[in-house]
Design goal:
Elements: H1 2-13, H2 24-27, H3 32-40, H4 56-73, H5 79-86, H6 92-110, H7 114-120, H8 123-143, H9 147-168, H10 171-213, H11 223-255, H12 262-270, H13 275-335, H14 339-446, H15 452-464, H16 485-507, H17 528-541, E1 558-564, H18 570-581, E2 584-587, H19 588-600, H20 611-621, H21 624-640, H22 658-671, H23 678-690, E3 697-701, H24 707-718, H25 724-731, E4 755-760, H26 763-788, H27 799-802, H28 814-835, E5 839-843, H29 848-879, H30 881-886, H31 892-899, H32 903-920, H33 943-993, H34 999-1011, H35 1021-1057, H36 1061-1097, E6 1115-1117, E7 1128-1130, E8 1159-1164, H37 1172-1234, H38 1253-1336, E9 1345-1348, E10 1351-1354, E11 1358-1359, H39 1383-1396, E12 1401-1403, H40 1404-1415, H41 1426-1429, H42 1433-1444, E13 1449-1451, H43 1452-1459, H44 1468-1481, E14 1488-1490, H45 1491-1496, H46 1521-1533, E15 1534-1535, E16 1542-1544, H47 1545-1551, H48 1558-1570, H49 1581-1584, H50 1592-1601, H51 1612-1619, H52 1637-1650, H53 1661-1664, H54 1668-1675, H55 1685-1688
Helix pairs in contact: 3-4, 4-8, 14-26, 16-33, 17-31, 17-33, 18-29, 19-22, 19-23, 20-21, 22-23, 23-24, 31-32, 32-38, 33-35, 33-36, 33-38, 34-35, 35-38, 36-37, 36-38, 37-38, 39-43, 39-46, 40-42, 47-48, 48-51, 51-52
């Protein structure tokens, strides 16, 4: 970076001073060169005021003038930056110059001067910059010390020194000086003593050395002189020996026993000596002797030692003597040396002494140097420690500011998000309010429910986010050339609603569905023939181009990218993964550095490099145009033959590699100061991907950084353009048909990447990591500098290596990188997450090892899934190779249009026609044209026809769509106008009815006259009669006013009805629908022309002249009779262009054709004999007639062409026959002339005319063309008829709706008028009542009577109201029980079961499923009681098993009877009496009753119970369950299939014959059928002892109490009728179920015969019931078994609940 900046400064700007990279910080520290750089770009006009000095004032002046210019350029130049540059901190000037370099390059391209920039700057920004400049100048002056301040500091120091000197002259200073003087004297004395001592010592040492070095001349030895000392010595030794001997003798005598003397001995002798004493004396004497002997021995040893010592001394003396002799001999030899040698020895000694002195001095000086260096080292360490401490403080301050900035930016981002969400929510809330107000407004305008059509429109605008109310007014049908933003919104809303209406119309849904009362039809199907025709024409004009092949890459095991914020751990984790698993990591920074290094190193392609590979690499990595240019250049050089084989081989010209080329482009981009283009980055990455070995994986580190890079990367890797589908959708033209045989669009390709991983980390964590990393870098730099301090100054590094690199992860740019990532990540997340679905998020707020394991797991799973997917893709590709090859589109249509001009292509077309004819000539039946098996006729078509028909069809489609949308828009506007008009006339009529009247004036006058009558006269009857008469007159007068106002209101209503506005707009609606019919007719006509020209052009060279007339649908005349408009107007729907080709296909018609304007006839609207439905019918019939006529004309034209071909063929055949007969007669004449007559020959038949193969094939092709044309025409005619029918029905519905609304509005007006008239009359009557009361009581009227329109007030405040009626009592409600089904629940369950099985028989599985659904809360919590909702599946199955009795079906009516319990269980007599009542009510003896008749019959229980009425009228009446049960029984057993619900009462009573004992139930049912009572006793005592349901015993007891009557007997038919009830088959205990009804009847007949009776005779039931067969039948009659559901389900009954009703 420094080298680039230096080259820019020295080469391009040519500064006054040459700048070197190592001195960059020092050169720019005073700011002079910065000002010179800015002056070169005309930005620093006051550069002449800059100073080149490095003083403080010069720096202050220069940097003060630089700051406004840098702020103007947008460079962040604050006090810290200025201080860093002035102090020459490493990297500060470089960063400033790099920013300046980038901005000046941009400014250079724009060509703006400093004055222009200041002029363009906003006033607020300029004022802010001036304030910041003032603050910056003051703070800079506070930081930089001026020269005056430095001089003042020196003067202060000097005066401080003088003051200290003056203080030294004081008294105390003298004492201190005296003490110092004495101390110095003592030190000098000690030093002098030490010096004298050292001098003496040195002098003595010198003298000793001199004496040692000096050679003395000894005297010659003398024998006497030598012997005398020896003799003296010996004598001395002898004397010493004698003295020692004498000393020894003295000591011996002193210690010997003789010393005691003779006196003592004699005394002892004289004494008497005893034996003990003698022994003691002897012992002592012996000890003394021993002691003496020891002393003698010791003396001898001493003497021996002395003797030996003497001998040794003698030996030593002898040796000394010999040494002295040798020395004397040596001295004698040295004496013979010369005097010169002596002087030399003395000089050498002196020189040695001097050298020793010099060595000592050098050692002392070196020690002093070491001490000085150590002192300097410590000072440097202290200085570095202080600087490091200051740096740490500054770094902590920067960290604090960075955290504050981060908090501020985070707060701003949070505020912006909150504001964004708030704006979104507010917009949504406003739209909701608008939708609510729009709904309320519509309800206010119409007082009806909102139509679905209008609600869909509002919802569409609401979901898109468009305002529901108009923000601007647009003229109908006129679009502004330059719409305002509000008008643009309105236009967009119109387009949305128009498109919605168009879709509904074409798909026949929504408002355009077929009416329910009519036949429901599907939308018209697609015309496949027309679709094929349009597709072929488009392929001829615009041949489909093959897609570019996708780039080929090796098979990689992993293709992934890892994204995340800065300092999220991407590079560290991926580096470990690369080292552990060998996955290639591709980083943008690394690849760019490698490309730059390759460019700077001049990396070139080797000579043996394959040019094909290099070309392919260039074409894949770089721009395709550059690759093609390179190929053309290489081919040109090869063709020119510049390199000859015969010439000697020279060194071939090499070119740089692709990576070096990328590096060159990158360097150019960086030199320009811009960013690297995304396309270049993609090329660099693709080149790096191609270098990855096959089978290995690669991961992109931090790339792509935005959505554009992601899209370019996807396109480069997969070859598919992700934006192609959107572009096609935007530029797609409207087309009315589609080609079903067209090749389908390929499925969207799989994502090029297997995985996109995001390492999630919070902003605070990123900031902490960045700060920690910067601290580590600072410590590493500090350690390196500490290690470099003790090195010697000789070991210096080059300037390039001494500069410190900027620390990695500089936290000053972290905020910008975080903000940039947050700005781009939202779109990247949508791309990778929603569109490609490959995004995986991993939390990076963990330690390094945990993050490594998480990323490793995700990558491994992705690689495994990718390998499985690749294997599946390979297998699918192998299977579908043939099918894929068949889907490649071939431009057959375009080729066919050209084949007619060359013989080869004509042969190809001939072969194609041959194949078509052979297919058509086969025996197999040909398919219908347009079907799946039909082969379309694709004969050669002239290019001119296709080029004409394609734009013609496009204009047809666009005009159709635009015209339909215009009609829909007009219909919507008319709908809104009619709604508002009806609302306005209603409101105006209401206001008209509320106009003031004069009734109050008459009332006031009358009251004043009444109160003026004296009180004494009020009691008089005549006065009262007069007052009553006056009151009647007042009332009559008020009634007259009301009648008059009513007549006026009636006239106003009639005027509103007869103004004709509604009729005019109804006519407009009819005209709009007529226009829509005209659009459909135009579409049919234009489609017919396209088909006719297409099929005619395939076998004719000249197209027929098209008729120029247009089919016009009449419109209603809504103009005035004397209006200015003519009676003929232009149609609003223009069809396509009217130009036609009338000449040959090879020539174009150059003559301009005159376009004719379609003139539409008008119909008189105000004819009294016509109504809107009749007009719509006429218009619809006109459109159908036009379509039918056009279709019939085309059919006749086709038939005419066929007839002409047949006639032409017949004429050719006759011509050939005539020629053959003429030839034959000529041959006969010539034969007669040449020879005799030959025998008579038979007449030869005429020769057959042989048709050529081309004619046969051409006729077959024309036949197929006519078939296709006729089929397409029929399809279009049917579709047009269907759409016209739909338009007619919709128009009739809308017109009827408008008329109904108008009639409803007029009816409402009449009701309001009548209601107001009635209210006024009531108020007058109320006033009369009050006045009559006062007259009768002879009282004055103290209060003012006010008659205000329809209200009557007293004193103007108290309103007199009519007596309000009593409110109706609320309906009774049934109290729910925890186990009993309510009546509503029974009805709901019956409706559900009737819907499932209307016949009454439901399978046990289906019933079990229904109950499980009801008990699973899916149908709601109120479908069943609480006890039923707690049932388990096993209990439900058990319940169904009990009901089904091991059969597959269940009678759900019997189930509901059991579920409806408790209800009164009837006895046999009660059932018979009920049947009698039913028959009495059934006067027609039809066996059925209606609901009214059923209600008249009393069942076996009373349904008219006396219910206590609550006193509170607001409380409901008690619920009568029995009465509602009776209604439920009718709904349960009635036949709802008939028009009126009727009840088969016999079947109903058979159901109520159910009993806990099926035998008893059978007996009860038999009694109902025979209408006689029967008794049955079960023979088994065990069954008789079984407990029945509650209430069954009471019924039995009641039956036993009845008197015994005569048994009348039963027949076979009656028993069979009982057994056939419910549609069930009866099962016997002893045999299998009966197979058929006939077999059961035969068995019963057999039983009768066994008992002695015939089949038609009656047998007593008591006898018959004893037969085993009948007993089995009775016991197996499950239809008469009443199951106790509560007992089966183990549901306990409540204490207070009765078991049955009595």
């Amino acid at each position: 970076m420094s080298d680039i900046l230096c080259r820019w400064l020295n080469s391009e700007l040519r500064l006054s001073k040459v700048v070197e990279p190592h001195s960059l910080s020092k050169d720019f520290s005073n700011g002079y060169l910065l000002g010179e750089v800015l002056s070169r770009f005309q930005l620093q006009e006051d550069f002449q005021s800059f100073s080149t000095n490095s003083s403080a004032n010069a720096k202050l002046n220069n940097f003060t003038r630089l700051e406004p210019t840098l702020q103007l350029l947008g460079i962040p130049f604050d006090l810290s930056m200025a201080k860093a540059v002035m102090q020459g901190q490493p990297g500060a000037a470089t960063r400033l110059l790099y920013q300046l370099y980038i901005l000046l390059q941009k400014k250079k391209r724009s060509g703006l001067t400093g004055t222009a920039l200041e002029t363009m700057q906003p006033a607020a920004t300029a004022r802010l910059h001036r304030i910041e400049n003032h603050i910056y100048t003051q703070r800079l002056r506070a930081v930089v010390k001026r020269e005056a301040d430095e001089k003042m500091q020196k003067i202060t120091q000097r005066f401080d020194k003088r003051g200290q000197e003056m203080y030294g002259r004081s008294v105390m200073a003298e004492l201190v000086h005296e003490e110092k003087r004495r101390h110095l004297q003592e030190e000098r004395r000690l030093q002098d003593i030490e010096k004298h001592r050292q001098a003496r010592k040195k002098q003595q040492e010198i003298m000793e050395r001199i004496e040692t070095a000096a050679v003395r001349l000894p005297k010659p030895p003398m024998s006497r002189s030598l012997r005398a000392p020896r003799k003296q010595q010996r004598q001395q030794e002898a004397q010493n020996v004698h003295q020692q001997i004498a000393q020894f003798e003295k000591s011996r005598k002193r210690l010997s026993p003789a010393s005691y003397g003779p006196t003592s001995f004699s005394v002892q002798v004289t004494r008497a000596v005893s034996e003990d004493e003698m022994a003691q004396w002897n012992n002592e004497y012996v000890q003394k002797i021993r002691q003496r002997l020891e002393e003698d021995a010791t003396a001898r040893e001493q003497r021996e030692k002395r003797r030996r010592r003497a001998l040794i001394q003698q030996l030593h003396t002898h040796h000394t003597h010999e040494e002295m002799v040798r020395e004397e001999q040596l001295i004698a030899r040295l004496v013979r040396q010369s005097q010169q040698e002596k002087r030399i020895a003395v000089q050498l000694m002196q020189i040695r002494q001097q050298k020793e002195v010099l060595r000592q001095n050098r050692i002392l000086r070196q020690r002093q140097y070491e001490e000085q260096r150590l002192t300097d080292f410590h000072q440097a360490l202290d200085r570095e420690a202080a600087l490091l401490q200051q740096d740490r403080v500054e770094h902590q301050e920067e960290i604090r500011k960075e955290r504050e900035l981060h908090a501020h930016l985070a707060a701003e981002r949070t505020q912006s998000k909150h504001q964004k969400h708030f704006n979104i929510c507010s917009e949504i809330l406003k739209q909701i309010v608008d939708l609510a107000t729009k709904s309320g407004e519509y309800r206010l305008l119409t007082a009806t429910a909102i139509p679905l059509k209008m609600m869909r429109e509002w919802k569409e605008l609401y979901f898109i986010g468009k305002p529901l109310y108009k923000v601007s007014e647009l003229e109908l049908g006129a679009e502004p050339a330059e719409p305002s933003p509000e008008q643009a919104i309105e236009l967009e809303k119109l387009n949305i609603l128009n498109q919605q209406d168009y879709d509904e119309y074409t798909n026949m849904m929504g408002e355009w569905t077929w009416p329910e009362e009519g036949e429901s039809r599907a939308p018209p199907t697609n015309n496949d023939i027309l679709g094929h025709v349009v597709a072929r024409l488009q392929n001829i004009v615009n041949p489909p181009c093959l897609n570019d092949p996708s780039p080929q890459f090796p098979n990689f095991s992993l293709r992934a990218c890892v994204l995340g914020k800065v300092c999220s751990g991407k590079s560290t984790c991926l580096t470990r993964i690369s080292e552990a698993h060998g996955i290639h990591i591709l980083s943008a920074d690394t690849l760019i550095q490698e490309a730059l290094a390759a460019h700077q190193a001049g990396e070139q392609v080797p000579n043996d490099h394959s040019p094909e590979l290099e070309t392919s690499a260039e074409s894949c990595g770089s721009d395709p145009q550059e690759a093609e240019q390179g190929e053309e250049e290489s081919s040109t050089a090869a063709d020119s033959g510049l390199v000859s084989k015969d010439l000697p081989k020279k060194e071939s010209k090499t070119k740089p590699t692709l990576r070096a080329q990328h590096g060159a482009v990158v360097e150019k981009a960086l030199r320009r100061g811009g960013a690297i283009p995304d396309e270049l980055l993609i090329d660099i990455f693709i080149h790096a991907v191609r270098q990855v070995p096959e089978g290995r994986g690669w991961v992109l580190d931090g790339f792509p950084a935005n959505v554009s890079q992601a899209r370019l990367l996807e396109k480069a890797l997969s070859g598919a353009d992700p934006d192609q589908a959107d572009r096609k959708r935007r530029i797609k033209k409207p087309n009315l048909v589609e080609d079903r045989n067209a090749p389908k669009a390929p499925p969207p390709p799989l994502p090029a990447l297997h995985l996109a991983m995001l390492l999630e980390v919070s902003d605070e964590q990123v900031l902490d990591r960045a700060i920690h990393r910067s601290q580590q870098v600072r410590e590493e730099n500090a350690n390196k500098s500490d290690d470099a301090l003790p090195k010697t100054q000789e070991q210096t590094l080059p300037p390039e290596q001494t500069q410190s690199a900027p620390p990695a992860g500089d936290h000053t740019h972290i905020q910008h990188r975080i903000a940039a990532f947050q700005d781009t990540w939202s779109k990247l997340e949508k791309w990778f997450g929603e569109k490609q679905k490959i995004l995986v998020k991993v939390s990076a707020e963990v330690n390094e090892d945990a993050l490594f394991r998480s990323v490793e797991t995700v990558l491994f799973n992705t690689m495994t899934a990718a390998q499985k997917g690749d294997e599946a893709a390979e297998s699918s590709v192998k299977v579908t190779d043939d099918s894929v090859s068949l889907t490649v589109p071939q431009p057959t249509a375009s080729e066919s249009g050209v084949r007619s001009h060359s013989p080869k292509e004509g042969a190809a077309g001939h072969s194609r026609r041959t194949s078509i004819s052979t297919v058509s000539a086969g025996e197999a039946p040909s398919p219908t044209p347009g079907s799946t098996g039909w082969v379309y006729v694709d004969e050669p078509l002239p290019q001119e026809i296709a080029e004409y028909l394609v734009p013609y069809w496009d204009s047809v489609c666009s005009s159709y769509v635009s015209n339909v949308k215009a009609v829909m828009q007009n219909l919507r506007s008319e709908r809104n106008l009619i709604i508002h008009h009806l609302y306005n006339i209603r409101e105006d009529f209401k206001q008209y009815l509320q106009r003031p009247d004069l009734k109050q004036e008459f009332v006031s006058v009358w009251q004043r006259d009444y109160n003026s009558i004296p009180d004494d006269m009020r009691q008089d009857e005549e006065t009262k009669a007069e007052l009553h008469h006056r009151l009647d007159e007042l009332r009559e007068r008020l009634w007259d006013i009301c009648d008059k106002r009513r007549e006026e209101a009636m006239e106003e209503r009639a005027r509103v009805i007869g103004d004709g506005w509604l009729e005019d707009h109804t006519a407009l609606l009819i005209n709009h629908y007529s226009t829509l019919m005209q659009v459909e007719v135009d579409r049919f006509q234009d489609t017919l022309r396209v088909l006719r020209d297409y099929y005619t052009g395939m076998y004719r060279r000249v197209l027929p002249e098209a008729p120029q007339d247009f089919t016009c649908i009449p419109l209603l005349d809504i103009t005035n009779n004397n209006g200015s408009q003519t009676d003929r107007t232009k149609s609003p729907s223009g069809s396509g262009p009217s130009e036609r080709l009338t000449k040959s296909a090879g020539k174009k018609n150059t003559e301009p054709e005159v376009k004719k304007t379609k003139v539409v006839p008008l119909i008189e609207r105000r004819s009294p004999s016509t109504d809107p439905p009749r007009l719509l019918q006429d218009i619809h019939q006109t459109a159908l007639t036009a379509i039918t006529n056009m279709a019939s004309v085309e059919v006749q034209q086709v038939e005419m062409e066929v007839n002409q071909e047949v006639q032409q063929q017949q004429m050719e055949r006759e011509k050939a026959l005539s020629q053959a007969s003429a030839t034959h007669s000529a041959k006969k004449k010539s034969a007669k002339k040449k020879g005799p007559s030959s025998p008579t020959q038979e007449p030869t038949p005429p020769p057959l005319i042989e048709e050529s193969l081309e004619e046969v094939q051409g006729r077959a092709v024309r036949s197929r063309i006519r078939q296709e044309y006729s089929r397409a025409l029929q399809h279009e005619e049917g579709a047009a008829r269907q759409r016209l029918e739909l338009v007619k029905l919709h128009a009739l519905s809308v017109v009827h709706s408008v008329q109904h609304r108008a009639e409803q509005t007029h009816t409402d007006m009449q009701e309001w008028l009548d209601q107001r008239f009635t209210s006024e009359m009531d108020s007058i009557q109320q006033l009369s009542g009050v006045v009559q009361h006062h007259i009768e009581n002879s009282l004055k009227i103290p209060h003012q009577l006010v008659l205000d329109c329809t209200d009557f007030f007293i004193d103007g405040e108290t309103r007199v109201l009519p007596t309000t009626p009593t409110p109706p009592r609320p309906p009774p409600l049934e109290r729910t029980n925890h186990r009993t089904l309510s009546i509503l629940q029974l009805h709901g369950l019956r409706a559900q079961l009737h819907k499932i099985a209307p016949t009454g028989q439901v399978s046990s599985t289906e019933l079990c499923k229904v109950l499980q659904e009801l008990t699973s809360l899916t149908m709601g919590s109120d479908a069943l009681p609480e006890a039923w909702m707690n049932l388990t599946d096993s209990q439900v199955q058990e319940l169904v098993c009990v009901l089904s009795q091991d059969r597959e079906v269940v009678d759900w009516r019997q189930f509901l009877l059991s579920a409806a319990q408790p209800w009164p269980l009837p006895s046999q007599n009660q059932l018979l009496r009920t049947l009698t009542r039913f028959r009495e009510e059934d006067t027609a003896a039809s066996g059925v009753l209606t609901l009214e008749q059923y209600r008249q019959v009393e069942l076996w229980f009373s349904s008219q119970a006396d219910v206590p009425v609550p006193e509170d009228p607001t409380e409901p009446l008690p619920y009568d369950r029995l009465a509602n049960l009776k209604e439920f029984f009718f709904a349960l057993f009635a036949d709802a299939a008939s028009s009126t619900a009727v009840l088969d009462y016999l079947t109903m009573l058979l159901y109520f014959c159910c009993h806990p004992d099926p035998g008893q139930g059978f007996t009860r049912a038999l009694s109902i059928v025979t209408q006689h009572k029967h008794q049955y006793r079960h023979p088994s005592p065990l069954l008789q002892s079984l407990p029945y349901m509650d209430g069954a015993e009471e019924c039995e007891a009641e039956e036993e109490d009845e008197s015994v009557h005569k048994d009348d007997g039963v027949t076979v038919e009656e028993i069979f009728r009982v057994l056939s009830h419910g549609g069930k088959r009866v099962t016997s205990h002893h045999r299998i179920e009966s197979n058929s009804r006939e077999e059961l009847q035969q068995d019963l007949v057999k039983v009768f015969k066994e008992l002695g009776f015939d089949a038609g005779e009656k047998i007593p039931f008591s006898m018959l019931s004893q037969h085993p067969f009948l007993q089995d039948l009775m016991e197996g009659s499950s239809q008469y078994l009443l199951a106790d559901i509560h007992r089966v389900l183990h549901v306990p009954k409540s204490d207070g609940e009765p078991s049955t009703f009595t």
